Amino acid sequence: MENICQWEKDLREIISRGQDIFVNYQEYSKCYPFTNERLSDLMYLLNTSGVYNALCVLSSGDHVFNLISKGIINIDTFDTNRLTEYYALGFKKTALQNLKYQEFCDYFFGPHYQREKTKPIENYVIEHMPQQYRAFWQGYINNLEERKKDNKGIFELLTFLGFDTAIEYNKYLSSEIEYNNLQKNLEKANISFSPINIKKVWHSMGKYDLILLSNVIQAMRKPLFGKAINIADKIYKHNLNENGEMIYLYEFVDPDFFRKDEVILARTLKGNDIKYLLNGSYATGKKKVAIR
User: Would the pTM count as exceeding 0.90?
Assistant: First the structure.
Protein backbone atom coordinates (compact mmCIF):
# COMPACT_ATOMS: atom_id res chain seq x y z
CA MET A 1 0.00 0.00 0.00
CA GLU A 2 1.38 3.38 -1.02
CA ASN A 3 2.46 5.55 1.90
CA ILE A 4 1.71 9.22 1.20
CA CYS A 5 1.53 12.20 3.52
CA GLN A 6 -1.60 14.27 4.08
CA TRP A 7 -0.72 17.14 1.75
CA GLU A 8 -0.12 14.68 -1.11
CA LYS A 9 -3.45 13.00 -0.45
CA ASP A 10 -5.23 16.37 -0.40
CA LEU A 11 -3.47 17.52 -3.57
CA ARG A 12 -4.44 14.35 -5.43
CA GLU A 13 -8.03 14.78 -4.32
CA ILE A 14 -8.18 18.37 -5.60
CA ILE A 15 -6.57 17.47 -8.92
CA SER A 16 -8.89 14.50 -9.43
CA ARG A 17 -11.93 16.69 -8.89
CA GLY A 18 -10.78 19.29 -11.42
CA GLN A 19 -13.51 21.89 -11.87
CA ASP A 20 -15.87 20.10 -9.48
CA ILE A 21 -14.76 22.13 -6.46
CA PHE A 22 -17.64 24.19 -5.14
CA VAL A 23 -18.62 26.06 -1.99
CA ASN A 24 -20.52 23.19 -0.42
CA TYR A 25 -19.07 22.95 3.11
CA GLN A 26 -17.59 19.53 2.44
CA GLU A 27 -14.14 18.06 3.00
CA TYR A 28 -12.81 19.70 -0.17
CA SER A 29 -14.54 22.97 -1.03
CA LYS A 30 -13.59 26.38 -2.35
CA CYS A 31 -12.45 28.76 0.38
CA TYR A 32 -13.76 32.15 1.35
CA PRO A 33 -10.91 34.61 0.76
CA PHE A 34 -12.14 36.91 3.56
CA THR A 35 -14.87 36.89 6.15
CA ASN A 36 -18.42 38.01 5.36
CA GLU A 37 -18.95 38.98 9.01
CA ARG A 38 -18.36 42.38 10.56
CA LEU A 39 -15.49 41.12 12.67
CA SER A 40 -14.05 44.61 13.12
CA ASP A 41 -17.16 45.54 15.13
CA LEU A 42 -17.15 42.30 17.08
CA MET A 43 -13.50 42.72 18.01
CA TYR A 44 -14.17 46.28 19.11
CA LEU A 45 -16.85 45.08 21.53
CA LEU A 46 -15.08 41.98 22.84
CA ASN A 47 -13.24 42.34 26.13
CA THR A 48 -10.21 40.14 25.59
CA SER A 49 -8.31 41.07 28.75
CA GLY A 50 -7.40 37.89 30.58
CA VAL A 51 -8.09 35.71 27.54
CA TYR A 52 -5.25 33.20 27.23
CA ASN A 53 -6.57 30.94 24.47
CA ALA A 54 -9.36 30.72 21.93
CA LEU A 55 -11.16 28.27 19.69
CA CYS A 56 -12.66 29.32 16.38
CA VAL A 57 -13.70 28.15 12.95
CA LEU A 58 -10.84 28.51 10.48
CA SER A 59 -12.64 29.30 7.19
CA SER A 60 -10.92 32.36 5.63
CA GLY A 61 -8.63 32.72 8.65
CA ASP A 62 -9.99 36.14 9.54
CA HIS A 63 -11.32 35.10 12.95
CA VAL A 64 -7.79 33.95 13.74
CA PHE A 65 -6.03 37.02 12.40
CA ASN A 66 -8.40 39.44 14.11
CA LEU A 67 -7.92 37.66 17.43
CA ILE A 68 -4.14 37.71 17.01
CA SER A 69 -4.27 41.43 16.23
CA LYS A 70 -6.02 41.80 19.62
CA GLY A 71 -3.15 40.00 21.33
CA ILE A 72 -4.64 36.49 21.65
CA ILE A 73 -1.86 34.27 20.33
CA ASN A 74 -2.88 30.75 21.40
CA ILE A 75 -5.62 29.67 19.02
CA ASP A 76 -6.98 26.27 18.02
CA THR A 77 -9.06 26.09 14.86
CA PHE A 78 -11.29 23.56 13.14
CA ASP A 79 -13.06 23.25 9.82
CA THR A 80 -14.73 20.54 7.75
CA ASN A 81 -12.97 21.86 4.65
CA ARG A 82 -9.36 20.68 4.54
CA LEU A 83 -8.44 23.35 2.01
CA THR A 84 -8.92 26.07 4.61
CA GLU A 85 -5.68 25.00 6.26
CA TYR A 86 -3.68 25.34 3.04
CA TYR A 87 -5.25 28.67 2.21
CA ALA A 88 -5.62 30.42 5.60
CA LEU A 89 -2.64 29.00 7.50
CA GLY A 90 -0.52 28.33 4.43
CA PHE A 91 -0.91 31.02 1.80
CA LYS A 92 -2.73 33.85 3.59
CA LYS A 93 -0.75 33.70 6.84
CA THR A 94 2.54 33.59 4.92
CA ALA A 95 1.40 36.54 2.79
CA LEU A 96 0.57 38.53 5.92
CA GLN A 97 3.98 37.74 7.39
CA ASN A 98 6.07 38.51 4.32
CA LEU A 99 4.27 41.15 2.25
CA LYS A 100 4.06 44.83 3.02
CA TYR A 101 0.60 46.27 3.49
CA GLN A 102 0.31 47.70 0.00
CA GLU A 103 1.70 44.55 -1.59
CA PHE A 104 -0.90 42.47 0.22
CA CYS A 105 -3.70 44.78 -0.93
CA ASP A 106 -2.42 44.91 -4.51
CA TYR A 107 -2.39 41.12 -4.70
CA PHE A 108 -5.77 40.39 -3.15
CA PHE A 109 -7.74 43.41 -4.31
CA GLY A 110 -6.25 43.98 -7.74
CA PRO A 111 -7.37 42.28 -10.99
CA HIS A 112 -7.06 38.54 -10.30
CA TYR A 113 -6.93 37.66 -13.96
CA GLN A 114 -3.74 39.68 -14.60
CA ARG A 115 -1.30 36.84 -13.97
CA GLU A 116 1.68 38.91 -15.02
CA LYS A 117 1.06 40.93 -11.84
CA THR A 118 -0.23 38.30 -9.42
CA LYS A 119 2.07 35.40 -10.29
CA PRO A 120 5.37 36.96 -9.07
CA ILE A 121 3.78 37.79 -5.70
CA GLU A 122 2.19 34.36 -5.53
CA ASN A 123 5.52 32.65 -6.21
CA TYR A 124 7.24 34.79 -3.58
CA VAL A 125 4.67 33.86 -0.94
CA ILE A 126 4.81 30.14 -1.80
CA GLU A 127 8.60 30.15 -1.50
CA HIS A 128 8.33 31.43 2.07
CA MET A 129 5.75 28.88 3.27
CA PRO A 130 6.39 25.97 5.64
CA GLN A 131 7.38 22.90 3.62
CA GLN A 132 4.06 21.03 3.56
CA TYR A 133 2.11 24.09 2.41
CA ARG A 134 4.76 25.03 -0.13
CA ALA A 135 4.72 21.52 -1.61
CA PHE A 136 0.92 21.51 -1.83
CA TRP A 137 0.64 24.87 -3.59
CA GLN A 138 3.56 24.25 -5.94
CA GLY A 139 1.98 20.96 -6.94
CA TYR A 140 -1.42 22.57 -7.44
CA ILE A 141 -0.10 25.52 -9.50
CA ASN A 142 2.06 23.26 -11.68
CA ASN A 143 -0.88 20.97 -12.43
CA LEU A 144 -3.19 23.93 -13.00
CA GLU A 145 -0.86 25.49 -15.56
CA GLU A 146 -0.56 22.19 -17.40
CA ARG A 147 -4.34 21.87 -17.65
CA LYS A 148 -5.36 25.48 -18.05
CA LYS A 149 -3.07 28.11 -19.52
CA ASP A 150 -5.56 30.91 -18.86
CA ASN A 151 -5.89 30.54 -15.09
CA LYS A 152 -6.05 32.71 -11.96
CA GLY A 153 -3.61 30.73 -9.86
CA ILE A 154 -4.62 30.32 -6.23
CA PHE A 155 -7.76 32.36 -6.89
CA GLU A 156 -9.11 29.32 -8.75
CA LEU A 157 -9.79 27.76 -5.34
CA LEU A 158 -11.38 30.86 -3.81
CA THR A 159 -14.93 32.16 -4.00
CA PHE A 160 -15.68 35.65 -5.24
CA LEU A 161 -17.24 36.59 -1.88
CA GLY A 162 -15.53 38.80 0.67
CA PHE A 163 -13.23 40.96 -1.43
CA ASP A 164 -15.47 44.05 -1.49
CA THR A 165 -15.91 44.19 2.29
CA ALA A 166 -12.57 42.78 3.45
CA ILE A 167 -11.06 46.09 4.58
CA GLU A 168 -14.27 47.24 6.25
CA TYR A 169 -14.85 43.97 8.10
CA ASN A 170 -11.25 43.37 9.26
CA LYS A 171 -9.49 45.84 11.51
CA TYR A 172 -6.09 44.39 10.66
CA LEU A 173 -6.62 45.61 7.08
CA SER A 174 -7.97 49.04 8.00
CA SER A 175 -4.54 50.71 7.97
CA GLU A 176 -0.84 50.02 7.59
CA ILE A 177 -0.42 50.50 11.34
CA GLU A 178 -2.98 47.79 12.13
CA TYR A 179 -1.44 45.50 9.52
CA ASN A 180 2.04 45.94 10.99
CA ASN A 181 0.67 45.22 14.45
CA LEU A 182 -0.73 41.91 13.21
CA GLN A 183 2.60 41.05 11.58
CA LYS A 184 4.36 41.61 14.90
CA ASN A 185 1.88 39.47 16.83
CA LEU A 186 2.00 36.68 14.22
CA GLU A 187 5.65 36.09 15.16
CA LYS A 188 4.49 34.89 18.60
CA ALA A 189 1.28 33.13 17.56
CA ASN A 190 0.57 29.44 18.13
CA ILE A 191 -2.16 28.18 15.79
CA SER A 192 -3.37 24.63 15.36
CA PHE A 193 -5.86 23.12 12.92
CA SER A 194 -8.16 20.11 13.24
CA PRO A 195 -10.04 18.88 10.12
CA ILE A 196 -13.28 18.10 11.94
CA ASN A 197 -16.88 19.24 11.75
CA ILE A 198 -18.88 20.98 14.45
CA LYS A 199 -20.28 17.69 15.76
CA LYS A 200 -16.85 16.46 16.89
CA VAL A 201 -15.60 19.65 18.55
CA TRP A 202 -16.91 19.02 22.06
CA HIS A 203 -15.05 15.71 22.51
CA SER A 204 -12.02 16.51 20.32
CA MET A 205 -10.89 19.94 21.50
CA GLY A 206 -9.74 21.36 24.84
CA LYS A 207 -10.91 24.13 27.18
CA TYR A 208 -10.91 27.79 26.14
CA ASP A 209 -11.44 31.30 27.44
CA LEU A 210 -13.09 32.37 24.18
CA ILE A 211 -15.01 30.38 21.57
CA LEU A 212 -16.20 31.86 18.26
CA LEU A 213 -18.31 29.52 16.15
CA SER A 214 -19.06 32.00 13.36
CA ASN A 215 -22.27 31.08 11.52
CA VAL A 216 -21.79 27.30 11.63
CA ILE A 217 -24.96 26.81 13.66
CA GLN A 218 -27.01 28.81 11.14
CA ALA A 219 -25.58 26.69 8.34
CA MET A 220 -27.30 23.64 9.87
CA ARG A 221 -30.74 24.82 8.86
CA LYS A 222 -34.03 23.04 9.43
CA PRO A 223 -34.64 20.22 10.13
CA LEU A 224 -31.16 20.04 11.71
CA PHE A 225 -31.34 23.35 13.57
CA GLY A 226 -32.51 21.80 16.86
CA LYS A 227 -29.70 19.28 16.70
CA ALA A 228 -27.25 22.11 16.01
CA ILE A 229 -28.32 23.93 19.16
CA ASN A 230 -27.71 20.74 21.15
CA ILE A 231 -24.22 20.53 19.65
CA ALA A 232 -23.55 24.11 20.68
CA ASP A 233 -24.71 23.31 24.21
CA LYS A 234 -22.22 20.43 24.39
CA ILE A 235 -19.38 22.72 23.32
CA TYR A 236 -20.55 25.28 25.86
CA LYS A 237 -20.50 22.71 28.68
CA HIS A 238 -17.35 20.80 27.75
CA ASN A 239 -15.04 23.36 26.12
CA LEU A 240 -15.71 26.74 27.71
CA ASN A 241 -13.72 27.76 30.78
CA GLU A 242 -15.60 28.90 33.87
CA ASN A 243 -15.26 32.61 33.13
CA GLY A 244 -15.10 32.27 29.38
CA GLU A 245 -17.18 33.67 26.54
CA MET A 246 -18.83 31.79 23.70
CA ILE A 247 -20.52 33.42 20.73
CA TYR A 248 -22.28 31.04 18.43
CA LEU A 249 -25.58 32.21 16.98
CA TYR A 250 -25.55 35.56 15.28
CA GLU A 251 -25.47 37.46 12.02
CA PHE A 252 -22.88 40.08 11.12
CA VAL A 253 -24.04 41.36 7.77
CA ASP A 254 -25.31 44.56 6.22
CA PRO A 255 -28.76 45.75 7.37
CA ASP A 256 -30.09 45.39 3.83
CA PHE A 257 -29.89 41.61 4.21
CA PHE A 258 -32.13 41.60 7.28
CA ARG A 259 -35.89 41.52 7.39
CA LYS A 260 -37.46 44.73 8.66
CA ASP A 261 -37.93 43.41 12.20
CA GLU A 262 -34.27 42.39 12.37
CA VAL A 263 -32.68 45.63 11.19
CA ILE A 264 -32.28 46.87 14.75
CA LEU A 265 -30.02 43.95 15.52
CA ALA A 266 -27.78 44.81 12.60
CA ARG A 267 -27.71 48.50 13.49
CA THR A 268 -26.51 47.82 17.01
CA LEU A 269 -23.15 46.56 15.80
CA LYS A 270 -21.45 49.66 17.14
CA GLY A 271 -23.44 49.62 20.39
CA ASN A 272 -21.98 49.17 23.87
CA ASP A 273 -23.56 45.88 24.92
CA ILE A 274 -22.54 42.92 22.82
CA LYS A 275 -25.68 40.99 23.78
CA TYR A 276 -27.81 43.32 21.72
CA LEU A 277 -25.97 42.68 18.46
CA LEU A 278 -26.39 38.93 18.58
CA ASN A 279 -29.19 37.44 16.54
CA GLY A 280 -29.66 34.40 18.74
CA SER A 281 -27.87 33.44 21.94
CA TYR A 282 -24.85 34.61 23.87
CA ALA A 283 -22.94 32.66 26.49
CA THR A 284 -20.59 34.32 28.94
CA GLY A 285 -19.16 33.33 32.30
CA LYS A 286 -21.09 30.05 32.21
CA LYS A 287 -24.33 31.98 31.82
CA LYS A 288 -26.28 31.70 28.61
CA VAL A 289 -28.42 34.68 27.60
CA ALA A 290 -31.15 34.25 24.99
CA ILE A 291 -31.57 37.28 22.76
CA ARG A 292 -34.76 36.11 21.06
Answer: no
pLDDT digits (tens, 9 = 90+) for 228-251: 778 888 888 899 888 888 877 655
**From residue 219, how far is each of 112, 186, 189, 216, 251 by CA, in Å?**
29, 30, 29, 5, 11
Q: Reduce the secondary structure of 126-154 to three states and give it as a string.
A: HHCCCHHHHHHHHHHHHHHHHHCCCCCHH
CA distance 168 to 41: 9
Q: From edge to edge, which strands make up the β-sheet containing 190-194?
A: 190-194, 74-78, 53-57, 208-212, 240-247, 281-284, 287-290
How far apart are the C-alpha atoms of 51 and 196, rounded to whole Å? 24
Task: Give per-residue pLDDT as tens, 107-153.
Answer: 999 887 788 889 999 999 999 999 999 999 999 999 999 988 788 89
The domain locations on the chain are 6-13+25-290
